[in-house]
Structures
1.
Amino acid sequence: MVKQKEAWSNGWQMNQEEAANRMELRIMPLSENESFARVAVAAFMTQLDPTLEEVEDVKTAVSEAVTNSIIHGYENKGGDKPVIIEAYLTHRRIHIKIEDRGVGIDDIGRAMEPLFTTKPELERSGMGFAFMEAFMDELHVESKQGRGTVVYMSKQIGGQ
Amino acid sequence: MEKMFMVKDGWLTITMPEEMDHHKAEEIREGADDYLLTGKVLHVIFDFSNTKFMDSSGIGVIAGRYKKVSCYGGKVVAAHANSRIRKIIMLSGLTDLIEIVD
Ligand SMILES: Nc1ncnc2c1ncn2[C@@H]1O[C@H](COP(=O)(O)OP(=O)(O)O)[C@@H](O)[C@H]1O
Ligand SMILES: [Mg+2]
């Protein structure tokens, strides 16, 4: 578990050094910022000349992860702690990391099951992770209760 | 601006926003439920004519209204959804519960 965790964040750091371009965005955990975050990443990825469908896939996945940080990670309470959205581009691939310092997830496997939600009273559908999985090539989640959650995703763009 | 809610002959038509995300979900949910509580509405139509983006928050809004009207025999319809919105609805499994029309 710990080993794999280190492998993922190390991999992110190492690959980032070879990136052609990268971005970082910090937002307050407010629902107003959900569209800003997904549109920013979508605009950033146009450098890879993506298809419309690829743009929509990435927008949906970013929206799911950022929304999760806001409503689950920070429990819809706003506050000073940020949601941090990072992305970098390598040859024909976008790599995305979305991080919060919120409550964390106790059982990641269960959280990622389609239809599972801890907030049915807010009419959450439990499909967020399922959509991230469906629309991206790679999805990896790290979390620690009381510390926060990091979602890593990547997707090949163009030239399939 | 079109009105977001319209009632006619027992059907509530909800004009969905351009971007159907968590930020918009609460407004639609509360507005729709005010109409459902009047007792004059049996069925719900979600009109996606203007909608370019939807994530799983939109699925939650549709499924929530379905739960409310289906116990009185009401129907839920998604109209004028583009191919992207249809894909999202399909992936969620809601196609078994609601009707999709052009
Ligand atoms: N950033 C996060 N911080 C804390 N909990 C999270 C986070 N992201 C997801 N979760 C947990 O995982 C569950 C499933 O997430 P998801 O598939 O997006 O469904 P939903 O958001 O509809 O509940 C959530 O209900 C929540 O309990
Ligand atoms: Mg979610």
2.
Amino acid sequence: MESETEQLIAYVERNIERTLADCTTCGKCFDACPMTEYSAALNGKTGPEVVAGIRSLLAGDGGTPAALEWTRVCTQSARCIPACPENVNPMLMMRLSRITALGSTGGPALLPDGKRDPNFFRRINAFSALQFSDAELAAWQR
Amino acid sequence: METMRERVVFWYGCNAVRHGDIIHSAIELLRAVGIDSDPAGGPAYCCGTSKDGNLAAAAGMAARTVEKFNAAGRDTVVTWCPSCHRHAGTFMTGVNTAKFGVSHITEILHTRRHLLVPLLTHRLDRRVVLHKHSGFHEVDAYPLIADLLRLIPGLELVVTDYSAPGHMCSAVSAVPAALKDVVRRSAELCRAHDSDTLVTAFHSCQRLLCGLATTDGIKVVNYVNLLVEAMGMKPPADEYAEWKNAGSEAAIREKIGEERIAKIGAEFFAQQVLPELRKLPEK
Ligand code: SF4
């Protein structure tokens, strides 16, 4: 039987395969993105060019600097979803790109993981202790 | 109209714990519309969505949380957090078999809003601006929230065309210049509409914007607290906002109190909690 991690990686890979099969690299998702204006590196880049890099990343071929940069600034605005004529869900495509770029599917880590904070859960526990009674903590958070 | 009482799991997620007031008000509202809840949240119920860089951790968290919800034996898990809701509908249940359905709290409250109508008896004579994001595509939450707020007698709700990127402010915070724009636009909208109150839908917007009270004289309040107030109840204190707007380290310490600080450890408080509370929104 597959482990939980293997099952999740298989789920990610299935979604990558589907994205690669359906996406035509038209670039409309990139054009609709409200985050590109926050990156000088994306200035002047075209949608088809950047999405081709995303596809290369997802296919395990390392992507392009612009594709990595777009992945870095994606905040899940969802504006790309209605823009896609192929019903790909480009927002999920960008999440798969992030997962791949972080090295989670076995390739090299190409982006730093800003969420790797050893105190993340400790802070949550601390704020819980400040905000909830002991009885609530025992009933709600164990 | 007859509506059956129901019992659900109310899954408030991880980061919402900074806002005990929001969680308590949400539970109160669910009760008001005939839903008793088993609240669940914090790290023990993490969905794993923040672990894209460590799929082993993400898989373990998702499997454990689905297992706990299956064991709870409720038909419905009501979500608060849009990240949890999204993750539950994709990665969590795409891999684990869930014996429950997932609904967002805005959908539940909106569907049962006829039960709120007779309870919203207390006038709130103020003009408020709804703070919105575009990214929660799974649930069109803002029209639902707007409908709920329009039930409050006296409340003048301003809904503008502006939607910030991301599904809530924490998503935007990864790109600091974008978050500054969100802060600036939000303050501008309040001024343009002659309102001193910005209404948030989600906890992380409350967290990152509540300091506007200090920087711009704008009160930031979550919609659940407005609804509870309109029910004639005193909403639980928004302590997080009180701490953030306290003005100095000494004032924050005084408001929290030495006993609570000792509970989480003085050193941890100083290193990990205080800096967050001292940080105000930047434009
Ligand atoms: S809009 Fe859709 S089809 Fe076009 S590049 Fe983006 S994901 Fe591919």
